[in-house]
Amino acid sequence: MRKGVPKDPEIADLFYKDDPEELFIGLHEIGHGSFGAVYFATNAHTNEVVAVKKMSYSGKQTHEKWQDILKEVKFLRQLKHPNTIEYKGCYLKEHTAWGLLFTVQCYF
């Protein structure tokens, strides 16, 4: 099992197993907040443009941060509405959740 993948099968099912550093290219930070940073990126396999929210759950309050990530992932997996951004999934890399991926549409 790759480092960073949860051992609990119920929790592990919330996350894709791929390595996000290999899957997403051209990351450019577009925003930053107390919970993490948001990046513009491209899926290297599909050329789909996405927003990637990277959230660290190491350091102080690791358990609380991890619980917040789980709560957000579980909520967003259920969210399906035409007026919301589409949730694409979540990946783990060491102590960072790369996730809450959304399709980004550009209108010019």
TrEMBL record:
List of residues binding ATP: 54
GO cellular component terms, A-Z: cytoplasm; lipid droplet; membrane raft; plasma membrane
Database matches in Pfam families: Pkinase (PF00069)
Signal peptide positions on this chain: none
Reaction catalysis annotation: L-seryl-[protein] + ATP = O-phospho-L-seryl-[protein] + ADP + H(+); L-threonyl-[protein] + ATP = O-phospho-L-threonyl-[protein] + ADP + H(+)
GO molecular function per UniProt: ATP binding; protein serine/threonine kinase activity
Topological category with respect to the lipid bilayer: Peripheral membrane protein
Domain Protein kinase: 24-108
Subcellular location field: Cell membrane; Cytoplasm; Lipid droplet; Membrane raft
GO biological process: DNA repair
Keywords per UniProt: ATP-binding, Cell membrane, Coiled coil, Cytoplasm, DNA damage, DNA repair, Kinase, Lipid droplet, Membrane, Nucleotide-binding, Serine/threonine-protein kinase, Transferase
InterPro entries to which the protein is assigned, alphabetical: Kinase-like_dom_sf (IPR011009), Prot_kinase_dom (IPR000719), Protein_kinase_ATP_BS (IPR017441), TAO_STE20_kinase (IPR051234)
Source taxon at top rank: Eukaryota
Enzyme Commission numbers on file: 2.7.11.1
Family: Belongs to the protein kinase superfamily. STE Ser/Thr protein kinase family. STE20 subfamily.
Name of the protein this chain belongs to: Serine/threonine-protein kinase TAO3
Name of the gene encoding the protein in the UniProt record: TAOK3
